[in-house]
Amino acid sequence: MSGTTMEPFNYDNKIVKYFGVATIAWGIVGMLVGVIAATQLFLPEANIGNPYTTFGRIRPLHTNAVIFAFVGNAIFAGIYYSMPRLLKTPMWSKALSWFHFWGWQLIILLAAITLPLGLTTSKEYAELEWPIDILIAVVWVAFGANMIGALIKRREKHMYVAIWFYLASFVTVAVLHIFNSLALPVSFFKSYSAYAGVQDALVQWWYGHNAVAFFLTTPFLGLMYYYLPKAANRPVYSYKLSIVHFWSLIFLYIWAGPHHLLYTALPEWAQVLGVVFSVMLIAPSWGGMVNGLLTLRGAWDKVRVDPVLKFMVVAVTAYGMATFEGPLLSLKNVNAIAHYTDWIVAHVHIGGLGWNGFFTFAMLYWLWPKMWNTKLYSTKLATTHFWMGTIGIIFYALPMYVAALTQSLMWKEFSEAGRLVYPNFLETVVQIVPMYMLRAFGGLLYLSGAFLMVYNMVKTAKQGKFMAEETDEAPALAPHTEEKGEFWHRAWERKPIFFTVLATVAILIGGAIEIIPTILVKSNVPTITSVEPYTPLELQGRDLYISHGCVGCHSQMIRPFRSETERYGEYSKAGEFVYDRPFLWGSKRTGPDLHRVGGKYPDSWHYHHMVDPTSMSPGSLMPPYPWMATNIMDHSDIPAKIRTLQKLGVPYPEGYDAQANEDLDFQANKIVANLKGSGVDVLPNSEIVALIAYLQRLGTDIKKTTAANP
Prior knowledge:
- The protein has 27 helices and 6 strands.
- A two-stranded antiparallel ribbon has the order 1-4. A two-stranded antiparallel ribbon has the order 2-3.
């Protein structure tokens, strides 16, 4: 431009390369653990006979590795490449970029160590204990500071649509993570949630649903708005549609969390809000899908030959399918069929494998040749990867839909005499074993495709020369001036701090309206006079139950359906969970609900069931836990646990921490005597004794009295 001084600067490709390599490496690890977990569901021997590799321990390892390691590193790689180019400036600080990279890898490594050891909060997608939570917050803030710093020193006047989504993702994930992770530490790797029961459930699914929204969805929509037009060499279809898409999506999404808790003890008004906003979400979600697919107008001939566009088209389509299915599942009549079944598993993986996985593959296939200044080593291999992944998703999802319908129909079927046709939960499990086998095969196929990609990426890099930095130039940003007749949103795009504040307000409204009344208005959780705090031994057993990830297969929430009350007993009441930190209502029933299991079986039944499940339940697919009969449990932390819970409002008597161990020993000796009477010899401080104490407590409070205090 005549008379304009151009300023030279460099784009940092090295940080993008490191995040890209981490994406691939952790992706392989996360998918491999997923295949092992899927295999364990039909082959319990795949648990390898030790506490560290059981399904309950490696399932959260799989979800954390795939969400935060695979998808998380992909987000950062995509942002660190696209954002400087959109703003015509390097990221604000290279030091912060590298702190972000190594900090994030350390977090993932700590997750990979602590989760198999059973150091977990058991909160879905937020299982990591409090020291790691603090580290996550610090690293995440460093990432956000780097983005905002780059925005302030940008040379491009307006913020492109991708950056809107990046900013909203940063702000919302920070808010979600901090509020959901509030807890009081007992020790370095043990804490109790600041919330209990119903409130904990609402906060957790406000976080859990929106972790999907603002970690797995909005950042990827930002990436879509940058990489899809680049790959297709076409402008975004509609700027105005992107505005409606963005603001309506971030405002509506935050309200939808309660749809995970339909027909539970959550107050009805919160459930209704969750349903209403979930249904409304179809519009902005499909607005994004339409904007993405119509960007390809005039470029569909390229889709036939370009594997990058193939992956992108299926990714955006999978996004559309998953965001239609989510609101569908939030309808109460559909949720009554789907909840606690494998339908939820299928739904999650359509989004995870199709939307996040395929878009990540597309982005990496596009980035690698660019950064190594070469062509993709093999288009044929990439196309083969595409078909292996697509067929893998089909083999994964379809059997899960069949399994879900089988589960729901069998659980709910009554005979003409008015009795359950399949009263034994195991009858359903046996029927769906072939579906679990097909699901594992689909996962293996998807993983094999990822290995093909690794080979293709390595060969691509070897044939090119890596450009650690790319030089560009642009004029400095002109001083701010008001432009006559400027579209209102264009004015906002020139003000990144103002824009970020508006996005923050938009996401805070829904969460505040749902959560604050549930915590402050006592009538939302009617108390039950007979519900008492857990005894010290029951508390130890509950923590052991949490440590082994039992909530991954068993729910503790009997919904008010005839089929459930006939099978399990009296439906669950909100007041029964006031001392549950965290709540353990569960999301999936691979085994039966346990909320009323207390007193149903003798102590010896639980002992034999844990040591060898098939001895009590022939055909069971639950892994054995024989080490619980011999592992000695250290109860020295009980006084600290009691004091921590007292600070959180649990009404243990003043000074009870001094006598808690005495009460624990008394209850343990009673259970040992019961077991001895059945021919079983165990030590009072063995893990199995504590677990039996907890299981025998479950659901027994409501049997004492059903009188509730308003």
